[in-house]
Write a structure and sequence with these properties.
The chain is mainly alpha-helical. It has two domains: about 130 residues, no CATH class; about 150 residues. The longest helix has 27 residues.
Length: about 300
């Protein structure tokens, strides 16, 4: 049974019931993401509590171009990296760890040059980013609806996976690098067309006209960054449920398997864990998270001088 999306207005009004619903709906998948990366049980619980407190503190600035799940997973990823960075700094101070011992997320946590591209470029104008995210989602939905799953996998490999044309055509069984370049060219052309139907935004159209989908370097809007930040190609949770019960047709199944196994999408893998009841958040933890959130909400909503 699908759940209705959270009511952002009620969340911004610090409504207790609205936040309780968000905790119930998302705690499992957020915990599953953290549990894949943090082995210590107490640390997992601390991080999960911190995620929801961070969400409450930041909800007034919620950017509605993204979903609540994207908002929460962005905070989740940042809090997880913060923990790994602190642990890494502590380990380095004792001289016990080598760089090769770290998993990729830990390496990202200790690399000061790594950009926070998952949460998008903070300095972009909101309307430009919103338009690009809308275009990416619309292109994915359009491509899915016509059953062009090979095309979708190629573009996801390039933008989300950062694959080279050579690696992509060999993996996908295409005729060569020109075939990959042709798929990319046509995809960007269609995105430009979709953008042109929505708004006259020269900056966005310039970005989409670039071969690599970016302009002016890392400081400027980038298609690959926004693809990742918006989870543009992530299948909806009900598609993951159908993948688990084996009811997907060949086309959707091939894409979902590619997305999970080749792209190793952390958000979808966390959703899958939650659906399979793996790395389950203990009920006692959910109750503590709720109590912590409610304490914070009461501190924000009670009149001054109240106890």
């Amino acid at each position: 049974m699908s759940q209705s999306p959270p009511d952002i207005d009620r969340l911004q009004a610090l409504d207790d019931d609205a936040w309780a619903r968000v905790e119930s709906q998302f705690a499992g998948r957020l915990y599953a993401y953290v549990a894949r990366r943090i082995p210590d049980q107490q640390a997992r619980e601390d991080v999960l509590q911190d995620i929801f407190l961070g969400a409450v503190r930041g909800i007034s600035g919620f950017d509605r171009v993204y979903s609540m799940e994207q908002y929460l997973f962005g905070i989740c990823r940042n809090r997880t990296i913060d923990y790994l960075r602190r642990r890494r700094d502590s380990t380095l101070s004792t001289g016990l760890a080598e760089e090769d011992d770290l998993d990729p997320l830990q390496q990202m946590a200790v690399d000061p040059s790594t950009p926070g591209s998952i949460v998008g470029k903070r300095d972009l104008q909101a309307r430009t980013r919103a338009l690009l995210v809308h275009v990416l989602r619309e292109w994915v939905q359009e491509t899915w609806s016509v059953g062009e799953f090979k095309r979708l996998m190629v573009i996801e490999a390039l933008f989300l996976g950062g694959w080279r044309n050579r690696d992509t055509w060999q993996h996908m069984g295409l005729s060569g690098e020109r075939a990959v370049a042709g798929i990319k060219f046509r995809a960007l052309a269609r995105m430009r067309s979709l953008a042109g139907q929505q708004a006259d935004d020269r900056k966005l159209l310039a970005v989409l006209s670039e071969e690599e989908g970016s302009v002016g370097g890392a400081e400027v809007l980038n298609v690959a960054d926004e693809w990742a930040a918006s989870n543009a190609s992530c299948p909806a949770r009900h598609w993951l449920a159908r993948h688990l019960n084996g009811s997907l047709d060949e086309g959707p199944r091939s894409f979902v398997e590619f997305h999970l196994e080749q792209m190793e999408c952390p958000w979808c893998l966390a959703n899958l864990d939650d659906l399979q009841q793996e790395r389950v958040a203990p009920q006692s933890l959910i109750e503590r998270v709720h109590a912590s959130t409610m304490d914070f909400l009461r501190s924000r909503t009670l009149p001054k001088g109240s106890s």
